[in-house]
Amino acid sequence: MTRKSGYALLATLASVVAVVCAAIFVSVGGTHTDDTTTAPRPQSTAAAQAAAGAWVGTWATAPAAAEPNTPHGYPDMSIRNVLHTSVGGTAARVQLSNLFGSAPLVLTHTTLAVADGTGGPDALPGTLAALSFGGRAAVTVPVGESVLSDPVRLRVPAAADLLVTTFSPYASGAVTYHPHARQTSYLAQGDHTADPDGTAFTEQSPYWRYVTAVDVWTDQAKGAVVALGDSITDGFTSTVGANHRWTDYLAERLDGSPQGPRLGVLNEGISGNRVLLDAPPNLAGNGPSALQRVNRDALSRTGAKTLIVELGINDIILSPHQSDANAIVAGLQEITREAHAHGIRVVGGTLTPFEGERGYQPQFDAVREQVNAAIRAGRIFDGVVDFDLALRDPQHPTRLRPVYDSGDHLHPNDAGYQAMADAVDLSTLLGSAPATV
Known about the structure:
The protein contains 10 helices and 24 strands. The chain is of the alpha+beta class. α8 links the parallel β21 and β22. The protein is globular and about 55 Å long.
């Protein structure tokens, strides 16, 4: 079956009522959550406990900063975000964030749809659903907070694009965004949230705005893996629109491997992110430090079972340079302790080579090697994925293997991201976390 015919078949199934009855969905939409705390989860009910299924994150991104030059937001504009799922389900709910806003965010209409598979802003016929928040179409998200929509019955496929479209008629302040989406989203003048046809969406954008997570109700996935990282996890040099980040390749492995656990994969990478320091004002898009954001962006994600950490290289190569490997190690150990407090297992990635990158210095590489030695010695994480070994040139180990080099000698290309995903031992993704590290 071709991809296009597969999407056509989905259209005939779109009107089928999901096996999950409405009673299992507790009304959680419209609940504001401070983005420094755990996101709201559905309450326990007898019906929910009896149902075969659970809420699991299928997609997520980290809010990085306030979008530059958006002091009034996008009044009278529809924003259609294009997102790629990892696991499927029979119902969905969406989280929207105003973390970096400067005024309350008032959205009068928000919709969710399955994209038609052509790569543009068109919805698959019969899949567009209006979202509500506490039973109401309109919602106000206070500054620094987020909101979770009411669930909607919608058959969400695995490895498919979704469309989350928001509309505000008002000037709503600075826009919370993720700058390096590696995915094309769209804007349209006026309220086109209910348009299945994407004709009105004539403006393209490389950003995700407001939307930070999508959960699905599933009886297949047993939880989610969350990747906390920098530009290498963000997929900075991957092909735009192809979903070739290493986390996408990992999702493909988990979906296709009979031996591997069935898990959602959530990408919480921010380009330029560091373990220890927040981004300076002139690089605000690099986001808050991993230590500051780990609870909000990773540990509170729905169904999170395992955290994969790929961080530390920016602490070394960005100014002010961190020359003390022990400081980076201590920061990574603190992330692990935070995860263990939530009952979440942690797998740590070694820091990848970067000789040839414009800021490279031998003393920086010495710090990287010291951090990697601590990771490999088991001093930091519950398990290790050796990204360094997977990507380095055997003939010149301080450099990326040429076939994996995007050209900047720091970030992998698509083949390199595939190699990173292949380096993950799927058996390490589930297991108990020790009490201390």
